[in-house]
């Protein structure tokens, strides 16, 4: 039996007011953290941030950039740009790991299980990251921004991952 994801293409719940204080919704809060994480990216084409959350607690973060100890693209240039590689294609021709991959690796390095967690990402994941999202046990993703990879969305839908797409 094929699982179907509950895909929402609307904005998440807006800020709430409690006791006269205006507070962001949880989705807004964690997406804003993902945007801050993205500022660490050294990618010349696109800055992406990811935050993994469980029970309203941040478990791991990641941004797109070269592996530890490897020269970053902002220092040596972008091979993909030089070769004219379109976004969403030929991922192997890149120095960087994706934000989701770095978040998952950070969690693994520290022995943190991501099973049942939610993932907040500033851009839709690629198909490689979608497969990783499924296998690490992420149950919900909140995405802000598009990426040219319909295959990734098909994987996530088939796996029953709850998806919310927030319009910036």
Model description:
The protein has helices spanning 26-38, 73-76, 79-83, 99-109, 127-136, 150-158, and strands at residues 7-8, 16-18, 21-23, 49-54, 57-63, 118-121, 140-144, 162-166. Helix 5 (127-136) packs parallel to helix 6. The model has no long low-confidence stretch (mean pLDDT 91). It has 168 residues and is of the alpha/beta class. It is built from 6 helices and 8 strands. Helix 6 (150-158) links the parallel strand 7 and strand 8. It has a 6-stranded mixed sheet with strand order 1-8-7-6-4-5. A two-stranded antiparallel sheet has the order 2-3. It is globular, with a radius of gyration of 16 Å.
Helical segment count = 6
Spans of at least 5 consecutive residues whose pLDDT stays below 50 are none
Rg over CA atoms = 16 Å
Strand order of the largest sheet: 1-8-7-6-4-5
Taken as a percent bin, the fraction of beta residues is 15-25%
The count of β-strands is: 8
Q: Which word captures the global form?
A: globular
Q: Average pLDDT across residues?
A: 91
Structural class: alpha/beta
Question: Termini, distance in Å?
Answer: 34 Å
Key attributes of the depicted protein:
six-stranded mixed beta sheet; two-stranded antiparallel sheet; 168 residues; alpha/beta
